Every structure is written in structure tokens, then in C-alpha cells.
Amino acid sequence: MIFFLLNAAIIGMFLYAMGVQSIQGILIVYAISIIIAFSPVGEWLLCLMAGARKMTRVDMKIRMIPLLEVVYNKAKRKTPSLTNKIVLKVIYQPEANAYAIGRRTVCVTEGLFRLSDEEIMGVLAHEVAHLAHRHSEIQLLIGGGNFIVTTFILLTKIIAGAIAIFSVFFGIRNRSFLSALLGIMVAGVIWLWTRFCLIFLMWSSRQNEYDADKYVFELGHGLGLVKALDAVGGSEPQKSFLKALYSTHPHPHDRIGRLQQMGVPYHRY
Q: Model confidence over 128-183: pLDDT tens digits?
């Protein structure tokens, strides 16, 4: 809510500066972006940006679809509001990974196929958990809400940069150093706002990962998820504090530790 209120304030400020002084006009512009994001077009665009494609190989379908059906049936009983259909797509990358996109799409990488069935179901359960908790719908909201904000920020950076460059070359003669200073200040404020939003959203994303892991445990696939995390990311080096702030996922060892505390019977060391 804080994020969207601040975004609405920024949009209102820019539109007001452009002569749109009606609150209805501001709300309409923002609402249109959200509607587009929540439409099938928004989910299709996210899949396109992720490089997700329709799964055409028969052997891939024979391996993955039955595993997804096992997980989905359990999740549907636990969360009846879960979408009635999940669309399975593939990303041709060697790393083992999976993503929940929009309201009903789960994308798996080609590298995920090298894991065991138990591990794959753990990973799929995690992505289905994101759909059940509607974490991926927040992606659509952020994408739609941020599209206009990002456009305005880009325009402001261009204008501020042009003012600064113009003032540097002609400031002595025209005495427009104040304009250059204003342009630099605007660019600085935008930079700080972007950093704040990233930290805020990444923190929220990390909490969502823990919530999804808990959901996986409740479905009975916690052991498979822990094994997958240890097989894929258990040796990932610890990130520095600043890098950790901007990370979308907690460190795998932290996730494994929480699942062990919930009762997953797993030991590696």
C-alpha cells in the first residue's frame, strides 16, 4: 500500500506539472495501467520477458505434467480459490529453476529436468504456493503500476540531463546554473526513490519466499524442496550486506534451516 500510494503521488505530481489537474484524470491513467497488467496481455508480456515458451516436446510433458498434477491437486484441496488451470511453460536455460508468473503460469527451466521427481515436486509446490498466496499477482500490479512511473522517471531524467548539459555549456553566459542544480537534484531524488523501492520490494519478495516454503511443507513436499535447494543452491556464496538487501531470495541455507525447524527430516552434514 505504501508503495502504490507513493507511486500514485509521483504520477499525480508529473501529471499536474503537465497540466492534468483533475484527480479523476490521474486515477484513470493509473487504473488503465493496472487493468492492462491484470489482463492476459500483462501475463503474456511477463512470460515474453522471462523467455518462457510453450512446452512442445512430448518427453518433457510426460515427465513434468504428472508431477505438476500431483502438486496441484493437493494445493487445490488446501486452497480452493487457486486457479482452475495452471499453464506450464519452459525456459531453455541450463540452470535448474522455476518461476510463477501472473495468475496461472508456472515456468520451468530445462535444467530442472535433471533433478529427481521428489525434488521437482518440491520446486513445483513452491511455485504453486506463490500462485495460491497471490504473490505473482503482485508482480502484475507492480509491473502495471511501475510502467507509467518508470516512463515518467525516464522522461524526467532526460529532461534533467538536458538541462544540466545545457547549463554547463551556456551557464556562464545565460546564468542558468540554478537550472543545472535543479536538474541534478531531480536526478538525485529519482535515484534515491528507485533504490528505496528496490530495497522495499526485495524485502517483501524474500518474505514471500519463506511463506511459500511453509506452504510447501504443509503440502508434504518439504523434503523434496530442501533436497532441491541443497542440490542447486546449497553451495552459493554468502552475499555482502548490500547485495543481500537487493536479493529477491533469501540464502538457500537460511531457507533450508527454516524448513528443518518446521520438521523436515533432512541432514547433509
A: 999 999 988 777 776 655 666 666 666 666 766 666 666 666 655 554 556 556 65
Distance (Å, rounded) from C-alpha 166 to C-alpha 169?
Answer: 5
259, 225 Cβ separation under 8 angstroms: yes
The three cell numbers locating residue 150: 518508470
- Alpha-carbon span 170 to 172, nearest angstrom: 6
CA angle 55, 60, 66 (to 5 degrees): 100
Ordered DSSP codes for 137-169: HHHHHHHHHHHHHHHHHHHHHHHHHHHHHHHHH
206's grid cell: 524474500
**146 to 5, 124, 154, 267: CA distances (angstroms):** 12, 28, 12, 43
Asked if residues 215 and 129 have their Cβ atoms less than 8 Å apart, the reply is yes
Q: In terms of Cα–Cα distance, which of 202, 209, 219 is closest to 258?
A: 209
Average pLDDT taken over every residue of the chain: 81
The full set of domain ranges for the chain reads 138-262
